[in-house]
Write a structure and sequence with these properties.
The complex is a heterodimer of chains A (300) and B (32). Chain A is of the alpha+beta class and 300 residues long. Helix content of chain A is 33%, strand content 25%. Chain A has a 4-stranded antiparallel sheet with strand order 9-8-7-11, with no helix packed on it. Classes of the chains: A alpha+beta (300), B mainly beta (32). Strand 5 of chain A pairs antiparallel with strand 1 of chain B, so a sheet runs across the interface.
């Protein structure tokens, strides 16, 4: 019995000497990995992406000589897989510059608006994430969250309210739920957007922000990405209560135009205090119909 | 660029999309 107990003790000692360095080593490895990601994110956020985007916008507003339009715009079409056959104007020489091509219109009837469902897609793109909002947090991609309060912005009266109550306060009917959906527009996609349902716009909140890439890879990498970027949040009401639609800018695409809101001007401020925003209340709510063309993203 | 929708709806709201699905504007996304 004595010999057996001694053997067990020895094996335990050996096991401990194996497990401690292994645990310590893997802890250090993961700490370094996290620190490395944080360093990269900090470095990425320090890049002058707004200035680059503004410059890119200016370059692309300059008219191209007619003989260069077809090869240059054609190269863009080839690189990003644009479907030129869907564009209202297929003749590339018609587009004075890349900016004009980027905000091209589509042929009528290439996108029939579904009448059987209450919410339709507002844009051509890829669904990054969708579902019910829980505990006041949204998901930008699976498992990566950001605060609803930070995204929509708050008021001085609501500033002290926690995320959960902030979400509850948005509901007109407490028995309803809050849902969300994120659609990513790739460089080759049609860059105008349309109303997903019939609703009334009552308020606009413009967050002058950064212009980080919103590519799904970056969205997986930077938590709260949509809360950092330049964006315009339109809020109002639809049949079931609260409704909001937000256009989030990205690197080289920070200029957002909304047709029913001529006063809006984005990517104009070089520096901005974090979380600052500009509000505009629509004294008369603006009725928007499902499928109606609402606005566009522009280079710049 | 990205479009984010946040909206209130009854608990039986049914999404007709999946993550990573390619969509075109006007296509169904969900209904009560």
């Amino acid at each position: 019995v004595k010999t057996k107990t001694e053997a067990v003790r020895k094996s335990r000692r050996r096991y401990v000497w194996f497990i401690i360095p292994l645990g310590f080593g893997s802890g250090l490895y993961f700490y370094n990995k996290v620190a490395d990601v944080e360093r990269k994110v900090t470095l990425y956020r320090k890049m002058p992406l707004k200035a680059i985007s503004r410059l890119w916008g200016k370059v692309n507003q300059m008219d191209l000589p007619v003989f260069l339009r077809k090869p240059l715009i054609g190269l863009y079409i080839w690189m990003f897989g644009c479907k030129i056959d869907e564009a209202e104007i297929e003749d590339l020489q018609h587009y004075k510059n890349l900016g004009e091509f980027f905000r091209r219109e589509l042929k009528p009837n290439v996108r029939p608006i579904d009448l059987d469902h209450q919410v339709t897609s507002p844009a051509d793109g890829k669904v990054l994430h969708y579902g019910e909002v829980t505990s006041g947090y949204l998901e930008q991609v699976k498992g990566v969250t950001y605060s609803l309060k930070g995204f929509l912005g708050t008021t001085p009266e609501m500033a002290a309210v926690d995320d959960d109550n902030f979400q509850r306060n948005l509901l007109r009917n407490p028995e309803n739920a809050l849902y969300h959906c994120v659609i990513y527009l790739a460089p080759g996609d049609y860059h105008r957007f349309h109303s997903p349902t019939d609703w009334l716009i009552k308020h606009r909140r413009h967050f002058p922000g950064e212009l980080l890439s919103v590519n799904p890879g970056v969205a997986r990498w930077i938590e709260g990405l949509f809360n950092f970027n330049e964006r315009v949040v339109y809020t109002g009401e639809w049949e079931h209560g609260f409704f909001s639609m937000t256009a989030v800018g990205a690197t080289n695409v920070g200029s957002i135009k909304i047709y029913c809101d001529e006063a809006l001007s984005t990517n104009m401020v070089k520096k901005h205090p974090a979380g600052s925003f500009l509000d505009e209340e629509f004294k008369i709510a603006v009725p928007i119909m499902k499928g109606q063309m609402l606005g566009e993203f522009n280079l710049g | 660029s990205t479009i984010v929708l946040v909206f209130e709806a009854p608990l039986n709201f049914d999404f007709k999309i999946t993550n990573n699905q390619k969509v075109k504007y006007g296509e169904p996304m969900g209904t009560v």
